[in-house]
């Protein structure tokens, strides 16, 4: 029924479309054809004497054939202002068809009307000259449209020409005086498409004045009238000559080292530097865009893309429960998992705003039928958690719920132990009760010889999980990684705020060193280590380069372009280490099939030993005293050291 109802409007639409033709262009084309016919049929008579009747019949027939074939080829419905190669190819094919049609019809017409046909050579010449002129007028029109937008003499002449061709076309004249003049680094496809966009878009605040390219092939040539120079030629003098104010790096595949080198080089020349590429922190598909340099661009090694078929298959069609699913890592785990076609994702968190965002994000990207459920509950609430397990019967549980802020947990020891340790125990017990196939725990490098309460609780969780792995049917694994760039409460957002406020930047100690990784990387590696796990592994992620926090602060100040921002030392906070211990240095590590994931040898404790430790902690928590709990943690976690000792040792090692 629907088709019948729509058929009439469709017919009308087709008729309407047929008449939305640039009739002005048809008239121009006929005038050009008349000129071609005058030259080749009327004036050029050396080899063939033609009467006026012959001239009229031949010329009219050729004209009808050519214009008819152009109509059939939709030539007059194209927008030539933006005409690409395919528009011109279509014009050539239409004219070739028109020429053949003319030759055939003239052979037939001779039996009806008595006239002299044009010779074959002259017919071809007529059609070709007409085609060349048709292509020519369109190219001139495009050139005028593209280059009549500046105030030079050439621009004014082209502007006048365009007014003849297309008086109704709106022309915004490009006034370069108010535009930022830029040099584009990289004359490859990205750089060229950026230049084209800037030239064609009158609302942009940039005007490209030159390209700088590495390839020898392009030196000394022009692209869209913009000169191309080599990296050696790109000097302060050259930039002065072209009045360059900003530099845009359009090298999407270049590594971070080269980016850093280019950034430093052009900053030193007094230019502002921008990037034309995908955002660094993308977790969903990104578009190319012009953006400021991020600190991640300078800090950083290549972001690692880790999605192998084995990992994808592992999570395919599984019901996965993520606790702490609204946090920085939890929410990214949800996003990465969503790409792997799980049957269902259950996002559990005590903080509803975080999980609400994840739910909206995934529904937007994967459609409303994507099976994501949200549960608001605390992992410490056994009854609420039991209801969740009863409802969904998950195959895999990823425990990313934890209190993680080191200084805050120093003052909230009771809460840290109740949430991190006993919350994890609750989840583990339910995994046991509901026959969950796999429990994965998100841990931290702060659990290695912890010097703070947060690290000690995480170490206790590891001992707990590995003990369950060894002594029960639940398959458990833990994954440790270091600081995550851009996660809530990480140092970069803090420094950004401090710079925006005009300083000072506060650093607890100028010697502090940390390891960094992006949120998507950490999440992908957690998921992959989960898929690699057999049972009872303690996975450790290679966090790449060490970063001096002082250098990070200096880079960020330089990036912001802010002047006179001080860096102030405030002294180490309670429980803070100078050097986070490298996860990857011990002899006890074994490699896995992913070169960034290692397995740490860790002897599991018996359930009796673990339960004894838990009893100590439970009794301490009941006192409600943070100091009592801290001392109980020292008993339960033998590696829990005082930060003063560890920092003294670290300094001794660096002195040697």
Number of strands: 21
Main β-sheet, spatial strand arrangement: 10-9-8-11-12-13-17-21-20
What count of helical segments does DSSP give?
23
Largest sheet: 9 strands, mixed
Kindly state the percentage of residues in helix. 40-55%
What does the radius of gyration come to?
36 Å
Mean pLDDT: 81
| Strand percent estimate | 15-25%
**Which structural class fits the helix and strand makeup?**
alpha/beta
- Apparent shape: elongated
Q: Runs with pLDDT <50, length 5+?
A: 1-6, 281-285
Distance between the termini: 87 Å
Any overview of this molecule?
- This protein is of the alpha/beta class and 656 residues long.
- Among the domains are: 15-147, no CATH class; 176-299, Rossmann fold, CATH 3.40.50.720.
- The chain is built from 23 helices and 21 strands.
- The protein has a 9-stranded mixed beta sheet, with helices on both faces. The chain has a 7-stranded mixed beta sheet with strand order 3-4-2-1-5-6-7, sandwiched between helices.
- α7 links the parallel β1 and β2 (206-213).
- The termini are far apart.
- The model is unreliable at 1-6 and 281-285 (pLDDT under 50).
